[in-house]
Amino acid sequence: MVHQISVFLENRAGQLAEITGILADNNIDLRAISIAETSDYGILRMIVDDAEKTTNILLQGGYILSMTPVLVIAVPDQPGGLVPVLSTLAEGSIDIEYMYSLFLHTDGKAYMVFRVPEEEKFVALLATHGITPCTAEELGLG
Amino acid sequence: MAKYYQPEIETASREQIKAWQDERLVKQVQHVWDNVPYYRKKMEEKGLTPADIQGTADLHKLPFLTKDDLREAYPYGLLGTPLNDCVRIHSTSGTTGKRVVAFYTQHDVDLWEDCCARAIMAVGGDKEDVCHVAYGYGLFTGGAGLHGGSHKVGCMTLPMSSGSTDRQLQFMTDLGSTILCCTPSYAAYLSESIHERGLRDQIKLKAGIFGAEAWSQKMREDIEKGLGIKAYDIYGLTEISGPGVSFECEAQTGMHINEDHFIAEIIDPETEEVLPIGSKGELVFTCITKEAFPLLRYRTRDICILSDEPCPCGRTHIKMSKPMGRSDDMLIVKGVNVFPSQIETVLLEQGYPANYQIIVDRVNHSDTLEVMVEMTPENFSDSLAKVTSMEKNLVDALKAMLGIYAKVRLVAPKTIARSEGKAVRIIDKRKI
Question: Is the Cβ of B409 closer than 8 Å to some Cβ of chain A?
Answer without folding.
Answer: yes
